[in-house]
Design a protein that fits this description.
Distance between the termini: 22 Å
Helix content: 25-40%
CATH architecture of the largest domain: 3-Layer(aba) Sandwich
CATH topology of the largest domain: Alpha/beta knot
Strand content: 25-35%
Structural class: alpha/beta
Largest sheet: 7 strands, parallel
Shape: elongated
Number of helices: 6
């Protein structure tokens, strides 16, 4: 079933009828996927649940969908994980956002760190955040999620803990003695996990995190790339304490 995100007010009690999709959604269905009138689609607005429908008309580059039924379906993990990812170069950050959404994160925080290779200029931040949010939406369409994780504005390391209150704060470090085998989180726990940049955290950053009650974890003997480390951590967390 083709799934499409439409940012609009949809509610189970509304009178079901025709919904005009936005230009980008219409282009995706009619041009990219070459779908036609009568074909089935699922529409969701990111606030929970989804609507079954069929394409009722395609006119002047716009697609209309006839909504037939609301389904209160959710595919969210009971484990609430925010991924704080040090900003990485090029398409690596897109990869991180996409795969993190597939693995069930509830939010993504781009982190400004000392050794990061990619410098996010203040005047470009709004555009980048919007781009990464669009990547998250696309990942929800593909993976079946009906609640879209938020991509937050970029934060400095020192702002992170004050901005997000959770049950557990984690960071990855090759020198750490603690592993996930030593951890025991409730299935409904909230976690913030921070991943270092391609060159790693500086000694000052590691010291700051430990002083602020982040638990340093070691994922094993091999050093993982920044775009791999977070995905490995998320998969293990969801397997041990979540819904994988």
């Amino acid at each position: 079933m083709t799934r499409i995100f439409q940012e609009c007010t949809l509610h189970p009690s509304q009178i079901l009828g025709e919904l005009a999709l936005g230009e980008s959604q219409s282009h995706h269905l009619s041009v990219v996927l070459r779908m036609g009138v009568g074909e089935a689609v699922t529409v969701f607005n990111g606030l929970g649940g989804e609507y079954q429908g069929t394409i009722s008309a395609i006119k002047k580059k716009r697609v209309w969908v006839s909504l037939a039924k609301f389904l209160p379906i959710e595919r969210e993990s009971p484990l609430k994980v925010i991924l704080a990812q040090s900003i990485c170069r090029g398409e690596k950050m897109d990869f991180v956002v996409q795969k993190a959404v597939e693995l069930g994160v509830t939010g993504i925080v781009p982190v400004l760190s000392e050794k990061q290779a990619f410098k996010l200029k203040p005047d470009a931040q709004t555009k980048k955040i919007a781009h990464w949010q669009a990547v998250a939406v696309s990942a929800c369409e593909q993976s079946g999620r009906n609640t879209v994780p938020k991509v937050y504005p970029a934060l400095a390391l020192s702002q992170l803990k004050a901005s997000h209150t959770v049950d557990h704060y984690l960071c990855l470090s090759p020198e750490a003695k603690t592993t996930l085998a030593h951890c025991n989180f409730a299935a409904s726990a909230s976690i913030l996990a921070i991943i270092g940049p391609e060159a790693g955290f500086s000694e000052a950053e590691i010291s700051y995190l430990l002083k602020n009650n982040f638990v340093a974890l070691n994922l094993g003997h091999r050093i993982l790339r920044t775009e791999t480390a977070g995905m490995a951590l998320l998969a293990i967390l969801q397997h041990n304490f979540g819904d994988i």
